[in-house]
Design goal:
The complex is a heterodimer of chains A (63) and B (176). Chain A has helices spanning 12-26, 30-50. Chain A has 63 residues and is mostly helical. Chain B has helices at 6-20, 31-38, 64-72, 97-104, 121-131, 134-146, 151-160, 166-170, and strands at residues 26-29, 47-52, 77-78, 81-84, 87-93, 107-111, 114-118. A five-stranded mixed sheet of chain B has the order 1-2-5-4-3. A two-stranded antiparallel ribbon of chain B has the order 6-7. The longest helix of chain B has 15 residues, at 6-20. The radius of gyration of chain B is 16 Å and the shape is globular. The chains are: A mainly alpha (63), B alpha+beta (176).
C-alpha cells in the first residue's frame, strides 16, 4: 500500500518543504496559532460566500 | 492590549468555576482546539470541552444542571453551544471510558498568564482512532507527523481500550 507522498509521485523537495512548514507551525505559541486559526476561518468564510454555501461566522477576538 | 488567547481564558475561567462549585467534577479541552496545542492549527469553530459530571457517565446523562448554573452566571445555551465571551463552547459529557480517562489524565498547559487543562496528545490520538471519522483520519495523520507522541504510552492506551491495531489503518492518510 502506498503511504507516503513520494510513493504517489509527489516531488520529494516539495513534500519536505511542506513537512518543514507544518512543523514550524506546530512549534508556534498557542496565541499565534489562534491568530492563524481565525485567519483560516475568514478564508473559509470567503470561499463559502463566493460559492453560495452557508457561511460560518469567524471568531471575533479582542486585540 | 488583550492577548489573542483572552477569549479562551475567559471560557476556561467559567468552566473552572463550574468545577469549583461542584457542578462539574473535572474538565479538559478536546477536539480541534486541543489538537492545535500540539500541532499546526486546524480549522475549527468550537471550543470542545469534555466534562465529568458528579452523577457519573452512562447513556442518560443530563446537562440540565450545568446549563442552569451557566444561565445563572449569564451564559445561555444556544442549540448545542454556550456562548462565552462571544465564543461557542460545546460541553461534552465524557461519553465512554477512554474519554473519561483522557479528562482525568489531562495535562495542564500555559495559556497567557493562566493555565488550562487539555487532553494529552496520546489520548487525543486514541480518541481520533476510536471515533474514526474522515476528519479524525486527517487529524491523526497530522498528529503522527507533528505532535510529540509517546509511542509506548499510546500503545498502552490503545490496548487498554480495545483499539490496538486500529492506528495503522488510520495513519495511511499521509498528506504531501
Amino acid at each position: 500500500m502506498k503511504t507516503s507522498p513520494e510513493e504517489h509521485g509527489f516531488p520529494e523537495a516539495a513534500a519536505q518543504a511542506n513537512r518543514e512548514r507544518r512543523l514550524r507551525l506546530a512549534r508556534l505559541p498557542i496565541e499565534e496559532k489562534i491568530r492563524i486559526l481565525v485567519r483560516m476561518q475568514h478564508v473559509a468564510a470567503e470561499i463559502a460566500r463566493s460559492s453560495g454555501r452557508p457561511v460560518r461566522k469567524p471568531w471575533v477576538l479582542e486585540d | 492590549m488583550v492577548g489573542r488567547e483572552a477569549w479562551m481564558r475567559k471560557a476556561i475561567e467559567v468552566i473552572r468555576k463550574l468545577v469549583e462549585d461542584g457542578t462539574v467534577t473535572a474538565y479538559a479541552v478536546g477536539g480541534g482546539m486541543a489538537a492545535t496545542f500540539y500541532a499546526e492549527p486546524v480549522l475549527t469553530y468550537d471550543l470542545d470541552v469534555f466534562i465529568i459530571l458528579p452523577t457519573g457517565g452512562g447513556p442518560l446523562v443530563s446537562l440540565a444542571p450545568v446549563y442552569e448554573r451557566l444561565g445563572a452566571m449569564g451564559y445561555a445555551p444556544e442549540r448545542e453551544h454556550v456562548l462565552i465571551a462571544g465564543m461557542p463552547v460545546q460541553l461534552i459529557p465524557a461519553y465512554n471510558a477512554l474519554v473519561e480517562e483522557a479528562v482525568v489524565r489531562a495535562v495542564d498547559l500555559p495559556l497567557g498568564d493562566s493555565r488550562v487543562r487539555v487532553v494529552g496528545p496520546e489520548y487525543l490520538l486514541a480518541i481520533m482512532v476510536q471515533t474514526g471519522r474522515p476528519k479524525d483520519r486527517a487529524r491523526a495523520a497530522i498528529f503522527l507527523d507533528e505532535a510529540a507522541i509517546d509511542g509506548v504510552r499510546l500503545k498502552e492506551i490503545l490496548k487498554r481500550h480495545g483499539l490496538a491495531g486500529k492506528l495503522d489503518a488510520l495513519a495511511v492518510d499521509r498528506r504531501p
